[in-house]
Amino acid sequence: MSLDVEELERRHRRAMAPTGLLDRPWLILGGAPDPVLPPDVLASHARVDINNSGKAAAERGLGRAALTVRRTRERWDVHPGLDTEVLLWFTAKNLFALRFKLLLQRQARVDRLIRMPKTERDAVVQHVVGPGVRSVGDLGKPSNGIAALCYGLFLGVPEIVLAGFSLTRSGHSYDRLARPRKQIEEDSFVLGRLAADRRVATTEAELAEETGIRLWQRGEHQ
Q1: Distance (Å, rounded) from C-alpha 178 to C-alpha 175?
Q2: Does the chain have fewer CB atoms within 10 Å around its N or its C terminus?
Q3: Residue 118: inside a domain, yes or no?
């Protein structure tokens, strides 16, 4: 049975409404090395950390995240001091199990917890960019950071700026493992579809050139 996308939107808008995040522009911080983080965008946008990118933010003294988007398999030992106002967890586990798991993470600070199973995550991405993404690349779905971009657009966030995103640079800002970048084809497909959307921007000049997404400039908030 297919998901009722309108009901999905209503449910997540209800869950996110008390946070005030739906009315604020977002800065999504991905895990690519050496993210470009202009002070102006940090001052004006709610920071959204992807997986363990909050560790890199903490090392730069950027304070709490407004929102963290996390996958089930992400390792807690990489960033045990997760500190976020809201945690959106991409998982099929129920809230009781998730809250118990958070209790075991004694250094983590999470004020509000929202869950989203894979079926809903995929439905949001396909609603925003179309079903064609399912036939792209090895997995047919974008990375968590690009899924978070689609989630914000799905809920009507006024502007979303990407930092710490790359289609070419290997490794991550929060470890030294130099792991290769995954889901490049899927992410390229989604970003290409969104290049004309003026709500979407990036601080990364390389990414702007590769995808056609506008390069964020001070004073250009839509």
Answers
A1: 8
A2: N
A3: yes
Beta-sheet strand order (sheet of 200-202): 109-116, 83-90, 65-71, 46-50, 26-29, 160-163, 200-202, 214-215
Is the distance from CB of 52 to CB of 75 less than 8 angstroms? yes
Whether 134 is covered by a domain: the verdict is: yes
Range of the domain at 207: 5-212
Give the angle 170-174-178 at the CA atoms, nearest 5°.
30
Q: Could you tell me if residue 222 is inside a domain?
A: no
Number of domains in the chain: 1
Q: What are 76-111's pLDDT values in tens digits?
A: 888 888 999 999 999 988 888 889 988 888 899 999
CB 206 within 8 A of CB 181: no
Query: Do the Cβ atoms of 82 and 105 come closer than 8 Å?
Result: yes
**The pTM is what?**
0.92
Are 35 and 173 a contacting pair, CB within 8 Å? yes
The 8-class DSSP code of residue 22 comes to G
Tell me how far apart the alpha carbons of residues 98 and 129 are, in angstroms, rounded to a whole number: 30
pLDDT in tens, 31-72: 888 899 999 999 999 999 999 999 999 999 999 999 999 988
User: How far is residue 6's CA from residue 48's CA, in Å, rounded to a whole number?
Assistant: 24
**Contact by Cβ (8 Å): 166, 186:** no
In a domain, 218, yes or no: no
